[in-house]
DNA sequence: CAGTATCCGCAAGGATACTG
DNA sequence: CAGTATCCTTGCGGATACTG
């Protein structure tokens, strides 16, 4: 299953490993949601903000800048008036889509199980509180 | 590629969707690292803390409690002296391993590309600063 | 060993106002 | 429209001390 990789050049468990820095970035909720939102095609800033419910304009800008810097998102500004800006995944960004879709699919598939586990855990705790 | 799912019962883009809450949890750096660390087998608290470099005891405890509550990690305490506590993935936790391994694999595979993109982005910015 | 409890600094992140 | 700049609050997360 390739979960160990003791002979690899990089080890994500190491605090100073470059792979760790990358994981820190992509294991971020807004990053994941933006990637998913752009997976189906380019979007302008406003539409993107509307699609990713709950994101503030500040966090969206910040996330997009980070993804742009890492070469995963392309920013295209058209000199209309008012200005039009479109964001699109680069090939690098697209290569990440499968992985994040995996996360989303897992979330969808296990909502019920997790809800059950939470209820079991919480009732267990409150029962203990009565002892 | 199943990136849209307009007819699905849940939509992760919605702020109040249960799937969003789950994604918020698993799209977290410590969660991902703990899942990876336990993927190869159970670990005691101390060994786990050593393996996941950089995690504080507080964040590790917090992350483990969250995962335990969601039914993804099992906590077993043995009445030795001093006490021995072992953490292991549940079947539910194991079912998430493939997805997070995907993230790690992607990170490993694209370190160089991202480094290049960053240098390009940063030098581009500083050149613009001279205009 | 494996925690819990507490304090505290600092940065994430929201709200608002302003600009090309 | 798509930002940037600013202020300000919240809580993440580290450090430390204490317990079964």
From TrEMBL, chains A, B:
The GO terms this record gives for MF are: DNA binding
Which top-level group of life is the source organism from?
Bacteria
Q: Does the keyword Transcription regulation apply?
A: yes
Q: Which PANTHER family match?
A: TRANSCRIPTIONAL REGULATOR, MARR FAMILY (PTHR33204), TRANSCRIPTIONAL REGULATORY PROTEIN (PTHR33204:SF18)
What positions does the domain HTH hxlR-type occupy?
A: 17-115
In the UniProt record, does the keyword Transcription regulation occur?
Answer: yes
UniProt cross-references to Gene3D superfamilies, sorted A to Z? Winged helix-like DNA-binding domain superfamily/Winged helix DNA-binding domain
- Specify the taxonomic lineage: Bacteria, Pseudomonadati, Pseudomonadota, Alphaproteobacteria, Sphingomonadales
Q: Write the record's keywords in alphabetical order, separated by commas.
A: DNA-binding, Transcription, Transcription regulation
Q: What is this protein called?
A: HxlR family transcriptional regulator
Matching InterPro entries, A to Z? HTH_HxlR, WH-like_DNA-bd_sf, WH_DNA-bd_sf
Enumerate the PROSITE patterns for this protein: HTH_HXLR
SUPFAM superfamilies found in the cross-reference section: Winged helix' DNA-binding domain
């Amino acid at each position: 299953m390739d979960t160990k990789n003791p002979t690899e050049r990089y080890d994500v468990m190491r605090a100073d490993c470059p792979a760790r820095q990358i994981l820190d970035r992509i294991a971020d909720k807004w990053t994941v949601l933006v990637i998913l939102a752009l997976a189906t095609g380019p979007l302008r800033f406003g539409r993107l903000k509307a699609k990713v419910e709950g994101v503030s304009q500040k966090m969206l800008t910040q996330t997009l800048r980070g993804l742009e810097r890492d070469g995963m998102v392309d920013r295209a500004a058209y000199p209309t008036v008012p200005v039009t800006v479109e964001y699109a995944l680069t090939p690098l960004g697209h290569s990440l889509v499968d992985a994040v879709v995996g996360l989303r699919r897992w979330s969808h598939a296990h909502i019920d199980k997790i809800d059950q586990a939470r209820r079991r855990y919480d009732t267990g705790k409150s029962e203990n509180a009565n002892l």
